[in-house]
Specification:
Strand order of the largest sheet: 7-6-5-8-9-10
Structural class: alpha/beta
Binding site for orotate: 160, 188
Largest sheet: 6 strands, mixed
Strand content: 25-35%
Helix content: 25-40%
Keywords: Glycosyltransferase, Magnesium, Pyrimidine biosynthesis, Transferase
Order of helices and strands: EEHEEHHEHEEEHEHE
Number of domains: 1
CATH architecture: 3-Layer(aba) Sandwich
Protein name: Orotate phosphoribosyltransferase
Shape: globular
Number of helices: 6
CATH topology: Rossmann fold
EC number: 2.4.2.10
CATH class: Alpha Beta
Subunit structure: Homodimer.
Distance between the termini: 23 Å
Length: 217
Amino acid sequence: MRRLPAGTPHTIALGGLDTLTAVTTDTPAPGTPAHRLADLVNEHAVVHGRVMLSSGKEADYYVDMRRVTLHHEAAPLIGHLLLDRLEESGYGPGEIDAVGGLTLGADPVVCAVQHAAASRGLDLDAFLVRKEAKGHGMKRQVEGPDVAGKRVVVLEDTSTTGGSALTAVQACRNAGAEVVAVASVVDRDTGAREALEGAELPYLWVLSAADLGLAPQ
């Protein structure tokens, strides 16, 4: 995974919002879009208490990302920050054809990134991956523009073990796509990175558990 050196400034154009400059460091610098997103995630999405995760693991907190991926302020931040992460790592529009992910969690993230690209005059298709193929109609598992022969990135709202992302990756490959990377808004630092990189998939994220002041579990 290729990142900008710590302290390197880069510009994030937030559509109708003022243009802000972020600095890539171990934790988001105060006053940057990433820092604001971390504040919004902590305020709206982090729920403390013993919970069972979709992976089957138990944790002392839950990050309910739909509370921020559908939030009026957070959604545009997510779109532009993820798009910037993809571009600085060599997976921006021009290098890829589409972004998508496993429904339901990835749906608003996918739309946010596509809208961010459109606001910059960039062409980027989107797709959604069902957990299993429909039993009627076109019987498709990957919905949206045809991904066969396309270079795509799989998106997630938050990653725990990487299992959901790998499900989406396999569905995309079955549909004929070339999956070039996986990207998440929040990485919980609980094995997703190792699982995805073990599958030879570059893995990117915007915020880590440490960025949110959370211990990996």
